[in-house]
């Protein structure tokens, strides 16, 4: 598909409070952000000046993982927590390897919805679509994505820099991050893959707490998880080598190095695993 964004009302975007997606865009040097996002972003940089490098490393991990998966024969990709588009985006990387790759982006954020048209640019042989849904509603995601993807065949599920904004099981019984992932993986065919990146406090606990406090005071909760909790997302799956590593350590030969990454202290985990 290459049509415009879904026929939905124009989203309301609150420009009076910082937003994680727009802050991430600002860290990456994008233009889809507002002064309030830059203000909060500068407060984060006062705590950890390397955040822009870390953000670029995270995006490069996504691109390397996508490139590797496409080279392994994966032709279907479901990217949840898409965020504001940055080029090259996932579908551009996948279709650069296999032109008939089919990609569905998913996000519940009105900011992303406003930019959805920029995502829907596919090769003639492939397909690109956008689904507006919350990661907590796996049934709705799979149902809507099924218009473009065949879930009886392998799918690469990407959750890049998303789950650290999702808490554990809520007091009211709502699904937490681990239950959400297991529910999505259960709907994937054997031979599918899970791609994750996630912030941790294992390496810089004091800075992680300070940054987390800033986000909580703004518009989002931040939930850095230790390696043991990150590993639980992959229960029942088979890790692709080199297993759980920092973003820059996952098959660096598949992409270009990010300037400055050799001087950055680790701040997150990443991994790719296959569903047997």
TrEMBL record:
UniProt keyword annotation of Transferase present: yes
Species classification: Bacteria, Bacillati, Actinomycetota, Actinomycetes, Kitasatosporales
Organism: Streptomyces evansiae
Keyword Cytoplasm part of the UniProt annotation: no
Entry-linked InterPro entries: SAM-dependent_MTases_sf, SAM_dep_MeTrfase_SAV2177_type
Molecular function via GO: methyltransferase activity
Name of the protein this chain belongs to: SAM-dependent methyltransferase
GO biological process: methylation
One Pfam assignment: Methyltransf_19
Keywords carried by this UniProt record: Methyltransferase, Transferase
């Amino acid at each position: 598909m290459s049509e415009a964004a879904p026929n939905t009302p124009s989203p309301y975007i609150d420009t009076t409070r910082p937003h994680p997606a727009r802050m991430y865009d600002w860290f990456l040097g994008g233009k889809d952000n507002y002064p309030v996002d830059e203000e909060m972003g500068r407060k984060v940089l006062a705590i950890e000046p390397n955040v822009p490098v870390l953000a670029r490393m995270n995006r490069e991990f996504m691109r390397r993982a996508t490139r590797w998966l496409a080279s392994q024969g994966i032709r279907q990709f479901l990217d949840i927590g898409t965020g504001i588009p940055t080029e090259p985006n996932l579908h551009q990387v996948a279709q650069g390897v296999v032109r008939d790759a089919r990609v569905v982006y998913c996000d519940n954020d009105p900011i992303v919805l406003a930019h959805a048209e920029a995502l829907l640019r596919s090769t003639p042989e492939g397909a690109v679509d956008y689904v507006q849904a919350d990661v907590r509603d796996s049934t709705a995601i799979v149902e809507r994505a099924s218009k473009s993807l065949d879930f009886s065949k392998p799918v690469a599920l990407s959750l890049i820099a998303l789950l650290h904004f999702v808490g554990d099981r809520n007091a009211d019984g709502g699904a937490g991050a681990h239950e959400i992932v297991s529910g999505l993986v259960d709907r994937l065919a054997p031979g599918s893959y899970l791609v994750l990146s996630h912030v941790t406090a294992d390496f810089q606990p004091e800075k992680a707490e300070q940054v987390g406090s800033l986000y909580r005071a703004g518009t989002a909760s931040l939930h850095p998880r230790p390696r043991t909790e990150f590993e639980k997302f992959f229960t029942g799956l088979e890790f692709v080598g080199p297993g759980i590593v920092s973003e820059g350590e996952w098959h660096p030969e598949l992409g270009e190095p990010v300037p400055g990454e050799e001087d950055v202290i680790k701040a997150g985990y990443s991994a790719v695993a296959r569903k047997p």
